[in-house]
Amino acid sequence: MSETIRILVCIKQVPDPEAPASSFRIHSETKTITAEGVPPVINPYDESALELAVRLKEANPDVRLSAVAFGAKLARAVLMKSLAVGADELYLIEDPSVEADGMITAHILAAAARKIGFDLILAGRQAADTNAGGVGLALAGLLDIPAVSWARKIELEEKLLRVERVVPEGCEILAGTLPALVTVSHEAGALRMPNIINVRKAKTKPTHSWTLADLEIGKLPGRSVELTRLEAPKRERHCQVIEGESPAETGAGLSRKLVQDGVLNLRS
Amino acid sequence: MGKYLLVFCEIGDRGAVAPASLEVLGLARELSGPMKLEVAAAAPREISGEVAECGPSCIYIAPSSAPTGYFPEWYASFLGEAARLTEPEAVLFAHTPLGQDLAPRLAQKLGTGLVTDAAGIRAEGKKLLVTKAVYGGVALATYSLNSTPQIITLRSRLGKIPPKEPGRSTETVEVKLPEGGGKPHWELVNRIEEKSAEIKLEEAQVVVSGGRGLGGPEGFELLRELAGLIGAAVGASRPPCDSGWIPSSQQVGITGKVISPQVYIAVAISGASQHLSGMGDAKKIVAINKDPDANIFKTADYGAVGDCRQILPAMIETLEKIKSEL
Fold first, then answer.
1. What is the DSSP code (8-state) at residue A86?
2. pTM (whole model) above 0.80
């Protein structure tokens, strides 16, 4: 029997980025945002990371797959989707004593990763809420393991890792050894839908709830990123609507107007 | 107290300095006055001459040529050393793939915080206030960093490329990489070019994008025809990419490419926040949608309501006619 390969996927709970803009309320005084009537989701990039992890597990029965989430007000039902699609266990880290930024989050995840154990860590390239993209690579630095960003495909053979990495002109295929961390880009594809049997099965899989006291964490760094203002973007423009008797006339009218106003230049 | 704003300059497509890095240099020069700081640049050896002509007070260069392949450890090590020597108030990167890969590594190495994808920046004393789109573009956040150096990646076109001063002499300092700092971990096995013959989205003056309402890959054929006629690049919102109608490299939005062309024509795109924050800076926005209440019309300069499968052929025909009469 060969050795178990431990894969850890970091998942973040975020407000659903696909929710209609009208469901979001921005509270400028408290600098917070709420999505009304829309349940949170697992960050879509992290879902892509989870999808790659599940594929690795399918290709390699020796993989043990753990999902780990850190955050406030974690919705167990939402994060248990990771178990329903194939993770073996789920770690939920919540602690009201800490108001984290990306670097603090990376420190907490590093402590969790050390405690859980890992050969390969996967994370989304960024989170859909803050859109920052710092935690994964910082986590690798803290654990002192090499990292690749923006993977769309990962293959594992023993402890050799082969990563297809998205670059503007196409992709790079990289080879390296474990342990390592890989951040996953949306090109990897969306997470599969769990089927009803596996949703039921997920409830029997272990879910561990931790606070910072459960981690050997030492001293956390101070918060370095401060949100000073949160507002709605101003995008309103005055729209000149081109009308026509028929769609064809509308189209012709639009073309004429755009050329007339110099918006489109057909000479170049 | 630091004396510098440190700008990382990267090598662009054609072996010259990446234009995005030059824009950041230009922006750093603007910020440096009120912040009472000087601009230092960190650049691979190959482009140090060109960077020098763009006005930094000093340049930190690597001891060897920039490695080919994927070698972030080398860059992070070089930048860590340049930051140690300059003790900058801030390190600024262009929000390029390389910048996005290096900034978090450097922040972690230096034990400081970072803000990425800045859409706006201003100085208040030695502090930088950074504005960026969050929650998929639903909100605009302003952040400040209370640790130094402040590490920030900046969207393109925030700064102006500084004029070149040929022959300008600039103090150049060679950085020594720390022990083990140049060791690669990843072996580049292969590089696959998937470049299409079409115009690059990021560089296009005019972009024609399609959404779910195009109905399928054949809808994009019509879009390509229009694009060919007006010299435009073809983009898309997220649903067509997810459905495989068009490669996801053409996706415009927070999750895809953030662009600011002169003209953006949105065809059958409803206008989700995450899409709008990827193209909202376009000079002129034209929207075609069969739903008169579609969100996209609120941010458009020109609009046409109707089925794009009928509107587009008529547009193309009219444009061809106008073109033939020129």
1. T
2. yes
Residues of A in contact with B326 (CB under 8 A): 266-267
**B314 vs A134, A248, A268: nearest CB:** A248
| Cα R_g (chain A), whole angstroms | 23
Distances in Å between the alpha carbon of B106 and those of A134, B55, B91, B153?
10, 24, 9, 12
Same structural domain, A211 and A241: no
pLDDT tens-place string over residues B3-39: 999 999 999 988 899 999 999 999 999 999 999 999 9
pLDDT exceeds cutoff 60 at A106: yes
Q: How far is CA A31 from CA A135, B116, B141, B147, in A?
A: 22, 19, 9, 21
Indicate whether A40 and A130 sit together in one domain: yes
Domain of residue A184, CATH code = 3.40.50.620
B286 contacts chain A (CB < 8 A): yes
Check residue B191 and give left, alpha or beta (phi > 0: left; psi -120 to 50: alpha).
beta
Does A247 lie in the same domain as A180? no
Nearest chain B alpha carbon to A19: B272
Among B199, B230, B223, CA closest to B209: B223
Search chain B and give the residue with CA nearest A140. B105
Do A253 and A142 share a structural domain? no
Note whether residue A229 is domain-resident.
Answer: no
Nearest CB partner across the interface for B146, out of A106, A132, A224: A224
If asked whether residues A137 and A261 sit together in one domain, one would say: no
Give the domain extent around A134. Answer: 5-215
Q: Are residues A248 and A141 in the same domain?
A: no
Residue A27 has pLDDT above 50, yes or no: yes
Domain total of chain A: 2
Over range A38-57, report the average pLDDT.
96
B14 contacts chain A (CB < 8 A): no
Out of A232, A243, A256, the one facing B318 most closely (by C-beta) is: A256
The 10s digit of each residue's pLDDT in B225-271 is: 999 999 999 999 989 988 889 988 899 987 788 898 999 999 999 99
